[in-house]
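Data availability excerpt. The first of two example chains:
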Amino acid sequence: MWIFDEYMSDPTMQKAIISIGLIIGVALIKSFLGRAIINHSKRKKQGYRSKVNTMRNTLNISLVFILIVFWANEIQAFTFSIAAFMVAIVFATREYLQCFLGYFYYISSRPFRIGDWIQINEGVGEVIAADWTKITMLEVDLHSNSYTGKHLFIPNHQILLKPVRNLNFLRRYTLSSFTITCEPTIDVFPVVDKLREQAKVFCEDFVDVAERYKGVIEKRLDVEFIPIEPHFSVDTNQFAKICIAVDIFCPVEESIPLRQKITQAFFKLWHEAVDHTPAVERRRTVSIEAD
């Protein structure tokens, strides 16, 4: 029993016990507040990731600051005792120091926020958390604008070394581009004109919202953005096939269904035109394309 009393009378042991208690207490508070914020946000149908991330980072920074003040004398003595090894320590931990600098750059300049879609180097995803060492993202496939189910962990020093592209403006709406290829058996331009009119009908449900969203993007970027109406262009490839390039500014969830509708409408119009074009005219068109 006297050994326990001797340990408890040691100021360093007392500080260690208090520090452990603080760490456990902050962990319990983070867990309790995190669940409370998530439940409240779900009831209000609001996003919670940014609030939870801010709460956790605030508590972590406060805990580190309190522990540094609490152990100031011991840290000072320890620093003096290892002064000869400081250069080696800094060299060994330079990656972590760069991550800390990247984090301070992030919180000071705010190039993106929790919930934004960003691209750093080759990584593209939605930011779900940011701490002192890394950025955590849900990977996004830009071709389909859908989540891949993978997590990306980007060290904070990449913010200082690599360009950061904020893709949040294209999170709800995207420029869907695809190509339709067919044989050069008929004059395809009348078909494309009819297809353009049908595409406008397909886009009627969201064209007003797209116009407003386009206005917001132009106002924030201070540049003229892409047109709202579907755009069609006709070209040929190296195999002498007709290629119709289609560009549509549409909601992300409508991108794939619109591709299917426009492709289906095109081939329906194309087959109708082929059926109503005499074989002689079709051969003549092929001859002209060959020339």
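And the second chain:
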Amino acid sequence: MAADRPPKISVVIPVFNEMATIEEILLRVQAVELEKEIVIVDDGSTDGTRGFLADLARCARAAPARMTLRQSGAVLRADNICVLFQDKNQGKGAALRRGFQKVRGEIVIIQDADLEYDPADYHRLIAPIEAGRADVVYGSRFLGGPHRVLFFWHYVGNKLLTTISGMVTNLNLSDVWTCYKAFRREILLGLDLRENRFGFEQEITIKIAQAGWRVYEIPVAYHGRTYAEGKKITWRDGVRAIWCILRYSFLAASSKAPQAKPVVQPTNRGNEGKSAQ
């Protein structure tokens, strides 16, 4: 990838205490055949992840920009990786805002640092944007993709919150709280985002709906993990979600901002971006 040419996609990865999975998820992201950059934001990790990422950042500045991974012995490409560090843990939303400031790609994808979501879905995730039909794409866990069976009450809570969200946004999304979201870069950078934690998911959904951007959903694979395996979201985040629905729907109604009328042409770049890994 030429240094002065924006990549096809920017993958933003917020990280907090993911030493068990960080090496593998980076290998999987790099394996996707798309021209890309990877922006990693460490959100104050204390389990060794921060040290690993500091080493990775040094390797990214070296020549050749590669790193031999300690757990697997695999060699990781690093020349397209940018690592940022938060001074203290602030939450997923804060880490994403920091990462968004650095992106250069035409399309921005959010990727969690665990192994719950499969980067092999990137091509399908960005397809509606590339075709000129969508400005934003959500990857839904509930539209028929393979998924690990876990946590019935989490499922009920998710559906309840998604239903309430739909009532205030008038978007018939099936999975507001999915990690996988893809955006045209200029849309994402035009949003004033404030939420520091998981309330980010509801805030960005309401602001996208308010602006009138075209939203698509596609099914994605989901390999959920247990709390023993590192899952972090709790019932407190559900309570915060309800507060965010009320807060941002009220702000959206009171601002009375005009809806966007995007005119977007397909990129027509075909498979040009599939040459770099």
